[in-house]
Amino acid sequence: MFKSIQWKIVIIYFLLVFLAMVIVGAIIITQMEQYLQDNLVETLDKEAQILSVQIRGISIVGAPDIQRIIERWYEVSLSPQIREVYVLNTERLVIGSNVQGANESYIADILGADPPTVLHSSLTGRKETEVLRNEGGQMYIMDYAFPVKNNTEQVEKIIYMRAGMAGVVATLDKAKNILTSATLLALVITVILGSLLARSITGPIKEVTSKAEKMAEGDFDHRLEVKSTDEIGQLTQMFNYLTQKLKTTLGEIANEKGKMESILSYMTDGVIAVNVDGEVIHINPAAIRFLGIKDNIQGTRLGDMFAGIGIDLDIKQIKKRKPNQESIIPRGDTVLRMETAAFKSEHRKVLGYILVFQDITEQHRLETMRREYVANVSHELRTPLTTIRSYVETLLEGVIDQRELATEFLSVVNSEAERMTRLVKDLLLLSKLDHQQTQWNKTRFDLENMIDETVRKLDIPIKQKGHTLIIEKITTLPPFDGDKDKIEQVILNILSNAIKYTPDNGRIEVITGYSAGKVSIAVRDNGIGIPEVDMSRVFERFYRVDKSRARELGGTGLGLSIARQIIEAHGGEININSQHGEGTTVTILLPA
Ligand code: ADP
User: Atom of ligand 1 at shortest distance to CA of 547?
Assistant: First the structure.
């Protein structure tokens, strides 16, 4: 309580007034004491003058006269404070007194002590006074000595008086009491006035403080009333201005923050912000989704958070990272790329780090596919090349002279070269389809005719394998708009597969039909079929169920993937259905 400015002001005022009153009081009391003493001395002087006139010239022998004079004088004296009066000769022998039995004794004997000091000076002709105090320092007696001189200015007698000082002391006590009461009253008034004055100063300060408290809670809507033009008024005005300024600035900051938060919330990259101690200060929804972490992890340590999801990464490692350093973090089916950067204050002091996560699963998949593709292409080309080289070398080593064997070898070389040509042709076509560079030569043509022609083209291999090929037209097909050559290529690929993967003397059916705006072409065989596990992958490039067998049969592993790409480019779909060991049906649906 006493720490408040109000109380400090009151205490200062109190002490000032108290000090002033004490000093003034001390001066007044001292002055008053002096005045009262002087007054008493004056009274004694007067009395001593009167007495001295009466006793001057009376010889010592006439002591009884002196005694009588004293008694008479004492009776009429108007100074009750004079208690004892002694007339002494120069030997300090009492020759008259108002004290019973004092005559003829030495004053020292009467007082039971050394002769009063005032007598020393009076013997030399000067009157003297002395105030005697008791052990507590309080005045109780005034000693007064008055020399009575004869005509030749010689001291012949001394009037020695002892006056009580109770009156003086009482007057002083009364004065002290009055002063104490006045001081108390002044102090009470000081406290009241001081606290009122202090309140007029602290009141506005308290108002400003309570407003500041409200501001700290986020309430900026109240203005303080400016009641004066003094410093407090200026402070209030300044405070109102500050409030307004702060409100505007905070509003701007909130807008910026809102903007930042929306950006962070809706951005596809995951962002985590940590302070230098590694405590998470922000994490956006993308980061939560990518890393599969709990929502409310604000304030947890980065190391703990990552440990919880099985990633070994903490703030120490982040601090050691170079700018733009990338890390790849596989998370289940997804692959994340992480980059970190420090964020700094105005004074270039590092305040924390930002971790940015990008989902590069697709990119990674494409990259892997590309690598596999290159490896597959190289492998597919190397096999026929190796065969060609070894056959040519054997021929060069002399087999060329054995006509029959040489012919056989050359036909192998020829078929391998053919296979390479096929492969390169397929690859080129795929590459064009991939890069959308294919020149689609779209015309209106008769699908049924085209299918018949294609079947005819495959007459020889069908016959060679003793297959029976049946074309079943459920409904007539409408004229079709598309790239005839490419569609023919698709039918060729599918039919070739049916021929290849069906053991000799098999049955191949081509079933065509049209319904609900769609042409369907199904190629059904009763061949070796495709195992369940491989079904989903037969449309992948270079994927072959039985690699060596397929290669033996001249397959490149690209036929179905080319077919799918061409059909999809025509807005259609291609599906495969198969029972391992029983047969396969490939169905094409094309909008027409
Ligand atoms: P390939 O040139 O090897 O025939 P495809 O892409 O045309 O390549 O076919 C991929 C794989 O699918 C083939 O290697 C084969 O294992 C399987 N396959 C395709 N069609 C049939 C079918 N009619 N019967 C059995 N297996 C087939």
Answer: 14
Q: What is the 545 CA–ligand 1 centroid distance (Å)?
A: 7
523 lines ligand 1 (CB under 6 A): no
Residue in 95, 24, 15 with CA at minimum distance from that of residue 55: 95
Cβ atoms of residues 140 and 134 within 8 Å: yes
| φ/ψ of residue 591, rounded to 5 | -70, 135
- Against a cut of 0.70, is the pTM above it? no
Answer whether 336's CB lies under 8 Å from 329's CB.
yes
- Three-state SS at 145: strand
Residue 538 CA to ligand 1 center (angstroms) comes to: 7
Q: How far away, in angstroms, is 499 Cα from ligand 1 center?
A: 10
Please compute Rg for the chain using Cα positions: 66
For residue 387, give the H/E element and its range: helix 361-396
- Ligand 1 pocket member 574 (CB < 6 A): no
Say if ligand 1 is within 6 A of residue 527 CB. Answer: yes
What is the edge-to-edge ordering of all strands in the sheet holding 573-579? 468-473, 507-515, 518-525, 583-591, 573-579
| Atom 2, ligand 1: residue with shortest CA distance | 555
Nearest ligand 1 atom to alpha carbon 556: 2
Task: Classify residue 476 by its DSSP letter.
Answer: P
Q: Are 354 and 345 in contact (CB under 8 A)?
A: no
Question: 490: CA distance to ligand 1 center in Å?
Answer: 13
C-alpha 450 – ligand 1 centre gap (Å): 22
Q: What are phi and psi of 97, to 5 degrees?
A: -165, 155
493 within ligand 1 shell (Cβ under 6 A): yes
Residue 560 CA to ligand 1 center (angstroms) comes to 7
Q: What is the pLDDT along the chain (592 residues), one digit of tens a residue?
A: 556 788 888 899 999 999 999 999 999 999 999 999 999 999 999 989 988 888 887 876 666 788 888 888 888 877 788 889 999 888 888 888 888 888 888 888 888 777 788 888 778 888 889 988 888 888 889 999 999 988 888 888 899 999 998 889 999 999 999 999 999 999 999 999 988 888 888 888 888 888 888 888 888 887 878 878 888 888 888 888 988 898 899 899 999 999 998 998 899 999 999 999 999 998 999 999 888 887 677 788 988 888 888 888 989 999 999 888 899 998 888 899 999 999 999 899 999 999 999 999 999 988 988 898 889 889 888 988 999 999 999 999 988 899 999 999 999 999 999 989 988 998 998 888 888 877 889 999 999 999 999 999 999 999 999 999 999 999 999 999 999 999 999 999 999 999 999 999 999 999 999 999 999 999 999 999 999 999 999 999 888 888 777 777 777 889 999 999 999 999 999 999 999 999 999 999 999 8
501 CA → ligand 1 middle, Å:
7
**Is the Cβ atom of 142 under 6 angstroms away from ligand 1?**
no
Residue 266 CB partners (closer than 8 Å, separation 6+): none
Q: For residue 564, how far is its CA from the centre of ligand 1 (angstroms)?
A: 13
Rounded CA-CA distance 491/520 in Å is 12
- Does residue 560 have its Cβ closer than 6 Å to ligand 1? yes
Q: Does 545 sit in the ligand 1 pocket, CB within 6 Å?
A: yes
